[in-house]
Every structure is written in C-alpha cells, then in structure tokens.
Amino acid sequence: MVHISKRLRMPVAQAMAVRLGAIALALLVCGIITTLTTGLNPLDVYASMFDGAFGTERKFWVMLKEVAVLLCVSLALTPAFRMRFWNLGGEGQVLMGALVTAACMINLADLVPEGLLFVLMLVLAPVAGALWAAIPALFKARWNTNETLFTLMMNYVATQLVAYSIIKWESSKGSGKVGVINQSSNVGWLPAIGDNKYLLIVLLVALVCVAMYVYLAHSKHGFEIAVVGESVDTARYLGIKVNRVIVRTLLLSGAVCGFTGFLLVSGADHTITTTLAGGAGFTGVMVAWLAKFNPFAMIGSSFLLVFMEMGADEISTAFGLNHGFGDILTGVILFFIIGSEFFINYKLNFQAKEVEAHV
Q1: Residue pLDDT, tens place only, 281-293
Q2: What is the pTM for the complete model shown?
Q3: Cα–Cα distances in Å, from 179 out to 112, 125, 165, 182, 293?
C-alpha cells in the first residue's frame, strides 16, 4: 500500500514550507496539551515564551550570548561530524579551554601586562582544547578505537580536572567556588563595546562562523574532510592521507571548543565551574544535525533551541508551573521539527492494492 523512497533533492522553498508546517502543527499540539493539563490559554503561554527571550534588552542580549556560545560549539563539532568522526567530547574540550583561561587570569594577572595576558589566553585556550581532542584522534588513527566512547569519557576526566582546580583556587576555604575572577581589577576580562559586554562575543563567533564556512566549502582541507566522510577507501584511492586528516580535523574541532571556553571565562561568566559549558557539547550535536552541517543554517537552529530553553524558564516563572512542563513543550516542538526531516528526505508513494480476480 505504501512505498517509501529516497528523494533526490527537495527544493529549498518546499523544504522550508515543510519545516514551517511542522512548527505550526507542533504549536497546535502544544496548545491542546496546555489547555488539557493546565487550563491556561495557549496564546498566553506562547506570549510568555516570547517575553522570556525578547521581553527586555537584557534578556535579548543574554539570548544572543547563549546563541553565540552554542553556535561556536556546534561549529567546532561540524568538521569532525562531516568526516563521520563522532566527537562527543565537546563539553570536555570547552572545559579545558576554560581551565587554561582561568589559570592565566588567576596566576598571571599581576605578573604580565594585560595585553600579553590576552595573547596568552587566546593562544593557550585553543591549544588546550586541541590537545584534548587530539588524544582520541590519535588512538582512532593508530588503533581504530571507538571515538564515541573515547571522547565521551574524556568529558568526565576534564570535569574532574576542573573540580580539582576549583578546590585549589576556591575563594574561601570549603566553599567549592572560585567566585568572580579579578573582580576588582577586571584584568583578563574581554572589553565591553559601549555598555554591552556580550556584543564582542557575538562578533567573534560571527567571524568564526564565516571562517568555518569558507574552510569547509572552499578549501582543500574541507574537500578532504568531505571525501573521508563519504568513503575512507575512496579517500585513500585519491591519495588522501586519512590518518593525517583525522588528527588535523580533531585539532581544529578541539581548538574551536577551547576558544569557546575562553569566551565563557574571559567574556561571559568571569569564573569557572564544572557546569560552565551547560551541556553545549551535546546540544551542539543536535544544532549541527538540524542544520545539515551548514554553518550559516546553524545560526537558526541555535537560536531555536536557545529561544525554547529561555521560553521554558519564563513559563515556569510566570505561571508557577514545574519546569518540566516547559520541557514537554520544547520536546514536542523538537519532535515535529526532527520528524519533518523524514518528509524532506523521503517520500511516500501510495499504491492501489491489486485485487486478484478469481474465476
């Protein structure tokens, strides 16, 4: 009765219409759930979600900062995922970049000029993230280890290293917190543009986005990544050194994650915790996948996820609901968006059932 076949390619306008239709249907279902379970007007709930992201100027810039951080991690994971190296270690790589940044701010603030301090942090944070990613890359290239488990386990090691350092640096004995680093002098803090401390972060991530697009779409390295991702045997036939590509790509992926750690410590939070990355290393996988690994499309998917997260928080505050209710609505919307990709990539062919005539 129904035959599923792969689409060659759906026009961009039609694919966008499918996604928008999925969002509209998701909002309808969320409205029904809201009415049945809480008795609230769904339009009031949706307005609250919008207010959570755009209600004030501060909320708007906090949202842009969160989008920028999530986008930066997603961009970092993209080269590895295009190569079909399943790097789930983004969280740990971000933490290593953050750890080195915090160490520089705490230990070198009074020893070197601030300009040199920024140079050291800008160099050492990406290097730390790159080295952390290089470890599973080398094992994959040399012994074909399982990169998914390896990179995942590296997250826990990085978390414990950060926890150990926090105990060494804690602001007061037994507090388990570092506190705001260099709060009195602001040494090592990214400068604000005007009165806005997040604008520079957004601009820097925008540059990373453009650079990553050019690298993947218009460079020899980007071509080699795509070939290795399609077929390792084909890559070797073309003379591409696959092991070198694996290590080089993970160095890049880890370096951008380390740079994200620098932005979080120096530009956004000015402190370090074991939860500093906020799950971006895992959420970034969804962002990259939803955008089909297109750096510019990731801006939209990052915005969508951050908007829904902030909206869920606002629903809980405004209506006194459990935070889980907001997560339910977020999950329903994501379910429909992800499900729409099936209809973009495949089509259903309905065939009339043949009735055999019996004499």
Answers
A1: 999 999 999 898 9
A2: 0.92
A3: 22, 20, 13, 9, 37
